[in-house]
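Intended use. Records like the one below are meant for learning the mapping from a protein sequence to its folded structure. Do not use them to infer anything beyond what is encoded.
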Amino acid sequence: MAIIEVKVPDIGDFDEVAVIELMVKVGDAVKAEQSLITVESDKASMEIPSSHAGVVKELKVALGDKVKEGDVVTQQRADELAKFIIDQFAVSITPFILKPLTENQFSACVSLAYNIGTGGFKRSSVFKKLNVNPNDATIADSFRLWNKGGGKVLKGLVTRREAEIQLYFKS
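Structure written out for the chain above:
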């Protein structure tokens, strides 16, 4: 599991500043750039953001603590946030899938939905074809249609779609 330490960034001309507000607690899912704490000097206050998305595993500061640049604010687990997000997409597409799928077929569909959104998935030919016949070989071609970003074919999306196709048709 990837543990990420979120540290106090450059706080300007101050050696130490006081923690005056905790904006998260253990167990919270946080986004990159989401404020974690507020610190205050004798001149100003500022919010300290998270450098990464993740789930807060441990708060390393408390109200009233003095912190300086480089001090650890939180430890977060990025993999738990990813699982949480993926689980949300699995829940969002499940009610619309009418035919039984293998675990691999379902996982490939969740991956596609994560990338194109639940609405995009429900409008896709992948979705329409799997609800008629989940073993239709032309579903592979339907996955391949989702290979563009900004109207251009992107190598990363081509690679991702091929991986999803391999997973979908894996026994």
